[in-house]
Amino acid sequence: PDERVLSIQLVPFDITRKLLLSRDITQLERVQTVHRDFVANVSHELRTPLTVVGGFLETLSDMPEVDDATLRQFLALMLEQSRRMQSLVEDLLTLSRIENSPRSMQQETVNMDQLLDTLMVEAEGLSQGRHQITLDNRCRRWLRGNVQELHSAFGNLVSNAVRYTPEGGSITLAWQEQDEGRAVFSVSDTGIGIPREHLPRLTERFYRVDRGRSRGNGGTGLGLAIVKHVLARHQARLEVHSEPDKGSCFSVIFNAEQLAARE
Ligand code: ADP
């Protein structure tokens, strides 16, 4: 007889129950801590731009006369902060929409050629000619999934590549076949890269390698958290290869079951 099974059966009912309960409570406490941290983070992220806008408005209202140049400068700075708050709220809404929608979401065939073209247009728009952007579309198959969610996840990888690659760098979007019927969507860049010790925590909400740089270039700190959620719903896996000062490659690997024939 298997002794492990026997020993489990020998544990009196109330002890097992207690063990289970204490595990549930630990789990519950962990969820509560995560929730509290999240609320604190969101409040902090919103408070900073609000304080800046409030400060400028106060200064302006205290000034007896404001020359045109100063006014324009203040307005530009306030606009930047309001855009920052807008991106944050949009990312929060995207996250909550994904979390609250049923796990068994409606699946459709996603026209990858079209989605890749849209992503290329968006990448060019964000880059404004500062990078060389290439598309390598070699996979003959399309995806099964939710087009909005996939667009949002892939779009976040693309905007990160643009954001963390200095002017003159290259970015490649690729859709390729892999072994065993899998397919990979990847975004690689020749940007600043990520030190190894940060890799495991990248998809945590509000986790940033360099806070100043992320905020300065419009990052909300939620992009990769959105990516993680979307990929989990599509049974896809994220792989990150990165080297500081060389660049990064974010690959999304889809199983054969998630692929569809071209229509
Ligand atoms: P953010 O809005 O700050 O970009 P993300 O969740 O999208 O938030 O990414 C988390 C962090 O991972 C970023 O702050 C950045 O430090 C790092 N990162 C993401 N993508 C890249 C990339 N392509 N190159 C270098 N660093 C990256």
From TrEMBL:
Signal peptide: none
Function description: Member of the two-component regulatory system PhoR/PhoB involved in the phosphate regulon genes expression. PhoR may function as a membrane-associated protein kinase that phosphorylates PhoB in response to environmental signals.
Domain Histidine kinase: 41-258
Keyword Repressor annotated: no
Protein name: Phosphate regulon sensor protein PhoR
Biological processes per GO annotation: cellular response to phosphate starvation; phosphate ion transport
Reactions the enzyme catalyzes: ATP + protein L-histidine = ADP + protein N-phospho-L-histidine
Record localization: Cell inner membrane
Keywords from the named record: ATP-binding, Cell membrane, Kinase, Membrane, Nucleotide-binding, Phosphate transport, Phosphoprotein, Transferase, Transmembrane, Transmembrane helix, Transport, Two-component regulatory system
Gene assigned in the entry: phoR
Enzyme Commission number(s): 2.7.13.3
Protein's membrane topology: Multi-pass membrane protein
Recorded GO MF terms: ATP binding; phosphoprotein phosphatase activity; phosphorelay sensor kinase activity
UniProt GO cellular component terms: plasma membrane
